[in-house]
């Protein structure tokens, strides 16, 4: 099933080009429904949770989480995307280099506990910001090059604190119809990537072609006859 996309590669520069040309149809102007629906399961009664947003773009989800009193750390390759996040939300921010990652910058909100790192995701590590109590992965695992998924999973697992609750959003469709990104991620691959060290629970699965929003309209233009969106809750196995 993965074969048509197995060797598909997008360079970081291509993602930066999309931002520069405002070809960011992956951005959603509202909080993602899957996050809203499942936030209580992610929080599990906890307050002051440290959230990680991989490949965060300018997701409004970050402000929504921060407004609840949680802290947010994101990683994004596009400086334009990061600056737009703060500007769109009328937030002032500071900008400073990251000594541990040559060429990287971190942008920090003055009003909220939000720090966004502008760098290659694979150069980020727990030595920079420690581990996290929650991760929201919408548009990250499905965006990276399929051949990099094991490396990606290893990074995510290394960023998970013992009580981490990792919410992962995946897509399933016929790869003969559309080449990606976003790429399809079958449930079996989620299990193979994370199942050895984590417990997996499928929280919600829906027919995304039935959704009455711009995302669904875009997916119809991809020529898909079906599109299943699934959200998984991934937690470290207790030792």
Overview of this protein structure:
The longest helix has 11 residues, at 33-43. The model has no long low-confidence stretch (mean pLDDT 89). The radius of gyration is 17 Å and the shape is globular. Helix content is 28%, strand content 26%. Strand 1 (50-53), helix 3 (61-67) and strand 2 (71-76) form a beta-alpha-beta unit. The protein has a 9-stranded mixed sheet with strand order 3-4-5-2-1-6-7-9-8, with helices on both faces. The protein has helices at residues 12-20, 33-43, 61-67, 79-88, 126-129, 149-158, 187-194, 214-221; strands at residues 50-53, 71-76, 93-97, 105-109, 114-118, 132-137, 160-172, 198-207, 228-236. The protein has 239 residues and is α/β, with parallel strands linked by helices. It starts with 11 loop residues before the first helix and ends with a strand.
Per-chain topology:
Blueprint: H1 12-20, H2 33-43, E1 50-53, H3 61-67, E2 71-76, H4 79-88, E3 93-97, E4 105-109, E5 114-118, H5 126-129, E6 132-137, H6 149-158, E7 160-172, H7 187-194, E8 198-207, H8 214-221, E9 228-236
Parallel strand pairs: 1-2, 1-6, 2-5, 6-7
Antiparallel strand pairs: 3-4, 4-5, 7-9, 8-9
């Amino acid at each position: 099933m993965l074969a048509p996309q197995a060797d598909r590669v997008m360079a970081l520069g291509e993602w930066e080009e999309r931002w520069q040309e405002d070809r960011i149809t992956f951005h959603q102007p509202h909080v993602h429904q899957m996050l809203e629906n499942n936030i209580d399961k992610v929080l599990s009664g906890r307050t002051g949770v440290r959230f990680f947003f991989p490949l965060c773009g300018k997701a409004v989800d970050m402000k929504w989480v921060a407004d609840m009193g949680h802290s947010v750390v994101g990683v994004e390759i596009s400086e334009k995307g990061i600056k737009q996040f703060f500007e769109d939300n009328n937030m002032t921010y500071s900008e400073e280099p990251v000594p541990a990652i040559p060429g990287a910058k971190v942008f920090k909100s003055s009003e909220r506990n939000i720090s966004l790192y502008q760098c290659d995701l694979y150069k980020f590590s727990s030595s920079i910001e420690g581990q996290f109590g929650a991760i929201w992965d919408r548009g990250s695992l499905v965006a990276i090059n399929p051949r990099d998924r094991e490396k990606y999973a290893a990074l995510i697992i290394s960023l998970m604190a013992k009580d981490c609750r990792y919410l992962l959003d995946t897509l399933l469709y016929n790869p003969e119809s559309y080449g990606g990104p976003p790429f399809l991620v079958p449930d079996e691959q989620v299990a193979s990537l994370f199942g050895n060290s984590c417990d997996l629970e499928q929280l919600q699965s829906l027919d995304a072609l039935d959704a009455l929003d711009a995302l669904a309209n875009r997916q119809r233009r991809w020529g898909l006859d079906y599109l299943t969106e699934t959200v998984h809750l991934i937690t470290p196995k207790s030792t």
